[in-house]
Amino acid sequence: MSENKVIDGKDFAERLRGSIATLAAEFEAKAGRKAGLAVVLVGEDPASQVYVSSKGKQTVACGMASFEYKLPADADEATLLGMIEQLNADPAVDGILVQLPLPRHLDEQKVIATISPDKDVDGFHVTNAGRLAVGQAGYVPCTPLGCLMLLKDRLGDLSGMNAVVIGRSNIVGKPMAQLLLAESCTVTVAHSRTKDLPEVVRRADIVVAAVGRPEMVKADWIKPGATVIDVGINRLPPAEGKTKGRIVGDVDYQGAVQVAGAITPVPGGVGPMTIAVLLRNALVAAYDHIGAPLAA
Ligand code: NDP
Q1: Number of neighbouring beta carbons within 10 Å of residue 200
Q2: Which residues lie with the beta carbon below 6 Å from any ligand 1 atom?
Q3: Within 10 A of 159 (CB to CB), how many other CB atoms are there?
Q4: Ligand 1 centroid from CA 232, angstroms
Q5: Where on the tree of life does the source sit, at the highest rank (predicted)?
Q6: Percent helix, strand and coil across the chain, each to the nearest 5
């Protein structure tokens, strides 16, 4: 098996952060301040704490300012919305991200709707979802945008290719489908009600799996030579004597890598791209805020 089949998201993300650091330094020279990203964490979910700390470290490493706000798990809606309003009005803050999932008593849609669309670097606000749908410039959710970058880097022009996106969530599947459509792919969006999923996937030149089911996509679903992007992050139960289980994607990697033309591993594929793209979105927002938009 050729090593060249493996799409190395870790390496791509590192290069992306390098170019972000250069642009962030240029921004600081131009604006007289650093580009700023604010992250709000409600509660103490361990995975969310790891993400937030990693985002903060990478933001600073790229030469941007990181503002972290923590609220207790029982924080009320008015407190959280008030904090977002303050960040909306703060000229040092270019991007705002509220770490999801939120504790159950908080209304996620209401929270996202309160973030100013021009600081919504996660791209979850309906204004940005609408901009993506009608082909206007806006903020695109980081994970699917990272997937598109990996695909274009590997395949170049995607026009005319058959793409199958498995999953239709607002944060991955739907925006992924919109991005591929904008690249002139013929896009099929599959989900839990799709009939004969293996047969649907076999038609694909590009498969994006964003399901959340460990190793669901099998090698014999993949058309020989297809490019496979595995978004899934699933932790398997621990093996005997171990405390933590292995992380696997939504694709049976060991089998699929034999058939695919190119494939992202898990970990080390899509995962590392998400934060790098978030920083890129925050920098794009910063340049927009000083009236000097970055070229696309
Ligand atoms: P959601 O649970 O929101 O969506 C899952 C989608 O998969 C739904 O559309 C669902 O269909 C579909 N689905 C579920 N079961 C099946 C099935 N048997 N056959 C076909 N489709 C099915 O998940 P997310 O989109 O948020 O995340 C998907 C995966 O990506 C998760 O593993 C998550 O951890 C990972 N992820 C990784 C990120 C990264 O940085 N790499 C970032 C975000 C997510 P239906 O709509 O019909 O219910």
Answers
A1: 17
A2: 143, 166-169, 171-173, 190-194, 197, 210-213, 231-234, 270-271, 274
A3: 9
A4: 7
A5: Bacteria
A6: 45, 15, 40
Mutate to test the pocket of ligand 1, among 171, 191, 216, 247 (most ligand atoms within 8 A of CB): 191
Q: pLDDT (tens digit, 9 = 90+) per residue, 52-110?
A: 999 999 999 999 999 999 999 999 999 999 999 999 999 999 999 999 999 999 999 99
* Residues 54/60/64/67 CA torsion (nearest 10 deg): 60
Name the CATH code of domain 30-120 (choices 3.40.50.10490, 3.40.50.10860, 3.10.310.10, 2.30.42.10).
Answer: 3.40.50.10860
Whether the model pTM is above 0.95: yes
Question: For residue 108, which of 116, 96, 120, 100 has the smallest C-alpha distance?
Answer: 100
Number of Cβ within a 10 Å radius of residue 151: 25
Q: Of 125, 131, 44, which Cα lies nearest the Cα of 84?
A: 125
